[in-house]
Amino acid sequence: MSNNQTILNKYIPLVDFLAHVLGENNEIVLHDVTNPEHSIVAIRNNYISGREIGGPITDFVLQILKNHGESADFVTNYEGISKSKIRYQSSTYFIRNEHADVIGMLSVNTDLQPYQNIMDAAHYIARHLVGIPQKHNALGSFNVEPLNLPIEDLTLNSIARVISTRGIPPERMNQEEKIEIINELNNLGIFLLKGAVSEVAEQLKTSEATIYRYLKIAQK
C-alpha cells in the first residue's frame, strides 16, 4: 500500500462520522484525485448522486482542484443540481501528503430539497393565508454538476461544451482560437483525465502532437 493510500484510508472513519452527525440528507464522499477514473474511495448517503465506490471524479470537482488546490485548504458553499435533479450545496476539503501535494478531497453534498420544501410552505402561507406577495424563490439559481457520468462521457461532454461555446466549426478555427480552447480545458482540469489529449485532438480535427504543443503554449 502506498503512503498516499495510507493517508486517505485514515479519512474513511471521518466519512462515517460526518454521515452520522450531519444526517441522511448529506452525501459524504472521499476522493483519491491521483486516480480520477476510479476516484471514489468511500461514500455515504449516496442517494443524491447515485454514485458508488470506484466511481469517477466529476469535471466540476476537477475544476475546483485545478483552481483552488494549490492555494486553499478547502472550498465551501458551491451549489449545483445532480443528474437526478436533486439540488445540493457542497463543501470540499483538500487532503495533502507530506510533500503538500493534493492527493484527495473530502466533500459534503447537502440535499437542499428539505429546506426548499420549508421555503415553499412558507411562501404558500404568506401568499394564500397572510396575503404577502412573493416574487421569487429565495434559494436562487444553481450551476449544474453532473455527479454520476462515466469518466468517458464526462470528458466528451466537457470538451464538446467548451468547443461549442465558440460557435465555429473546429475545421475553420485558427491556431489562436484552438489555443484558447486548450487553455480553457486545461483550467478545467480535463488534461488530468486519461485519454483527454486524444479526444481533444479528434474533436479539434488535429493531431495529438499539435495538442501537446498548444498545451505548452497555453501553460506559458
How would you portray this structure in words?
The chain contains eight helices and five strands. Strands 2-1-5-4-3 form a five-stranded antiparallel β-sheet, with helices on both faces. The protein has 220 residues and is an alpha+beta fold. Strand 4 and strand 5 (102-111) form a beta hairpin. The radius of gyration is 20 Å and the shape is globular.
List the helices and strands and how they pair.
Elements: H1 3-9, H2 12-22, E1 26-32, E2 40-44, H3 59-68, E3 74-81, E4 87-96, E5 102-111, H4 113-130, H5 151-164, H6 175-187, H7 196-203, H8 208-219
Antiparallel strand pairs: 1-2, 1-5, 3-4, 4-5
Give the CATH H-level superfamily of the largest domain: PAS domain
Indicate the radius of gyration in whole angstroms. Answer: 20 Å
Helix content: 40-55%
Q: Total number of β-strand segments?
A: 5
Spatial gap, N to C terminus: 36 Å
Q: Biggest β-sheet, characterized? A: 5 strands, antiparallel
Give the overall pLDDT as a whole number: 80
> Which architecture of the largest domain does the CATH hierarchy give at level 2?
2-Layer Sandwich
Structural class: alpha+beta
Biggest sheet strand order reads: 2-1-5-4-3
Uncertain regions: pLDDT < 50 for 5+ in a row?
A: 132-144
The CATH top-level class label of the largest domain: Alpha Beta
N to C succession of SSEs: HHEEHEEEHHHHH
Structurally, the number of domains stands at 2
Bulk shape: globular
**Strand fraction band?**
15-25%
- Helices, by number, come to 8
| CATH fold title of the largest domain | Beta-Lactamase
